[in-house]
Amino acid sequence: MGPREIYFENGVSFVAKVTEEEPRLALMKDGREEFNFKSFVPPETKLIFDMITPWGAYSKKENEPPKILVGKFTNIDGILAFLHEAGHLANEFSANLALSAKQKHEQEINKDKEDEYNASRLLAMKDEREAVILNERNAWAFALKKARWLERTYGISILKKIGDNKKVFDFVNGFLNTYEQNYLDELYNVDIFSKEQMEQLFADLDKSSQ
Questions:
Q1: Is the pLDDT of residue 58 over 70?
Q2: DSSP strands (E only) in the chain
Q3: What are the angstrom distances between the C-alpha of 108 and each of 121, 124, 130, 192?
Q4: Could you say which of 45, 73, 132, 184 would form a disulfide bridge with 41 (CB–CB 3.0 to 4.6 Å)?
Q5: Burial code of 145-157, b = ≥16 C-beta within 10 A, e = fewer?
Q6: Torsion sign, CA atoms 106, 112, 115, 118
């Protein structure tokens, strides 16, 4: 991938490029690097350009450093995507809760050989949904906070390139809704077709399990 550049006010631009060592994402002005986006993640984090795999963040493992896969982007979405993935690395506790909930849900799916959607499987799905959506919201909160910090510090408009507050809200919710749809797709076989129906199902499960 060749260098990609997004221009802001005051002669500042966001530049993403491949170097011999690793991808570099930075704010530049007058040929000088003003800010390296890697400052938002642990210093040992590896950045990897991957034009096929979606953007992703992976916490540190026993023998592997944390890493961020930098996927495709066309404009301001690249900055916000990176900040979002950085948010996952910044809140490892939330990310681990989501991962544990996913693993539990997968175990329950594997045990449900007849696809009966028993209570234990549905409760595991409910727990996963809560943990995953919270983890995603936390990461987006981090991303928006850092975007506003960059705006104040360098006199640039990042979020305004998306639009007003409502458009920023809709932008974030668009991503969150893709996660909600994943759970609705799984519940299709038990005639759950809307978010409201799904929430009612999980509320009923909570009552019956008390």
A1: yes
A2: 4-7, 12-18, 23-29, 32-36, 46-49, 56-58, 67-70
A3: 5, 7, 16, 19
A4: 45
A5: ebbeebbeebebe
A6: negative
Phi and psi angles of residue 67, each rounded to the nearest 5 degrees, phi first? -145, 155
| H/E element, 201 | helix 195-209
On the question of pLDDT at 73 being above 90, the answer is no
Question: Do 35 and 26 form a contact (C-beta atoms < 8 A)?
Answer: yes
> For residue 62, which phi and psi values (nearest 5 degrees)?
-55, -45
Sign, CA dihedral 48-53-54-56, equals: negative
Pairing of strands 32-36, 46-49: unpaired
| pLDDT at position 1 over 60 | no
What percent of the chain clears pLDDT 70, i.e. is strictly above it? 98
| Size of the chain in residues | 210
Amino acid of residue 63: N
Residue 112's pLDDT is 95
Residue 102's CB is within 10 A of a number of other CB atoms, namely: 15
